[in-house]
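ugh finaly. both done.
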Amino acid sequence: GAARPGSIKERLDARRKAESTVGAASRVRRHVEEQVRGQVQGQLAKARAFFEQGRADYQAGRVIKAAGALELAVQFDPANDEYRALLETAKRESRGARIGLLIHQGEQAESYQQAKQAIHAYREAVALEPDSGKVYYRLAKLVRREEENDREALNLLRDAVLKDPDVVEYRLALGELYKELGLKLNARREFTEILKRDKGHEGAKAGLKDL
C-alpha cells in the first residue's frame, strides 16, 4: 500500500531517538570508565606511597613498622611483585624481631617476679612459632609452677625438644614430667636420649633408676 503521510518523519524521529539513546549510553559508559580508571590510579598511588614508606622504614631497621606499611601497599596493588617480595622479607624479619622483644619482656618480668606478665609475653612469643626451644621451655616451667597446668607444660616441653633435640635440659624436664604423669615408656625414652648425648648425666641416670 501507499506510505502514510508522516511515516518517513516518524521513522527519522525513531532513528534519531535511537541514536540519542546509544549516544547517552556511550557517554555513561565513558563516564564509568573514567571513574574506574581514576579509582585504580588512586589505589596505585596509595600503594606506591605505602611502599615508599615501608621501604624507608625497612632500610632504617624498623622492620615491624615496615611490614605494616608494606601490607597496605600489597592490599592496594596485589599484582605488584616488588611490593610482595619486600613484604615477605620484612614479615620474616619482623617476626624474629617481635619474638626477641617478647622474650626480653618475659625475662624482665621474671626478674621482677611478675609471673603473670612473663607468662603473657612468652605465650605471645610462642604463638609466633619461634625456631628456638628456649621460650617453650621457660613458659612450660612457669605454667607448671603458677597455673599447675601439666597438659600445657607437656605440649610446650615436647615443642622445646622438637626445636632443640640436643639440649638435655629440655629433655630432662620432659622426662621428669612424663615420669610424674606415670608415662614411664615416654620418660625412659627421654632419659635414654639424654645419656646418648651425655653418658655421665646424673639427672638422666637418677630418672632411669627411679623408673
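ok and the 2nd:
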Amino acid sequence: MAGLWPQRGLSDGLVLLRTWRLDDAPARLALSADPDVRRWSPPMAPATLERVQERIQAARQPDALLAPRDWVIADPEDDAKVLGSIDLRIDLPPMFRIADLGYNVLPWARGRGVASAALRLLSQWLLASDGKDLQRLQLDHAVENQASCRTALRAGFRIEGQRASFLPIPDGDGVRFADVCMHGLAPHAHRDG
C-alpha cells in the first residue's frame, strides 16, 4: 500500500514541495502566462484568474491514495514564495506503476537548480514504498528545450530516445509538432554492462 503525502510536504533545503493554496493563484497565473512556459507547452487558452483558481482547487483534491498530483515548488525558508510547479500524470492501469512528470519554474527562479532539485525530491518519494511506490517515472520535452534536458539529467533521468513529431507546441499563429527527447528513471531496471 502506497503511503500518504506528508502533511508538511517534502524538502531538501533547496526546495519545498507542498500542496497548492488559493493564495498561490497570482504566482500560478504568472507561471501559466510565462512566454517560456507557453513556448514549450501544448497550446492552451490564455490563463485567467478564474481558471487558475479552478486548477488550484482541483490540485487540492487528493487522488485515491490520498496524495496530490500537482505541487508547488516553494522556497523552504518562505513557503509562500512560489518558485514553480511540478506534477505527475498516471494514465496507465495501476498495475503498470508508471507516472509521467512535468515541471515549470518562474523566470526569476531559473538557473538555480530548482527544477532538478524538485524533480529529484518528488521522484524519490514517488518511487519509495512510503510514497506512491511506483516502478518507473518518465518525462519528455521538446528536443530543442536543452534546459529541460539538463534538468532531467541532473535529477537522474536517463535519455531513452526520441519520438518524432510528438509534442504540439505553438509556432507563430499555428502549431507544430516537435520531436521530443524521452527520459526515464527506473531504479530497479536491469542494465547491461
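summary for the 2nd one i guess: Strands lie at 10-11, 16-19, 70-75, 78-89, 98-105, 136-142, 158-171, 174-185.
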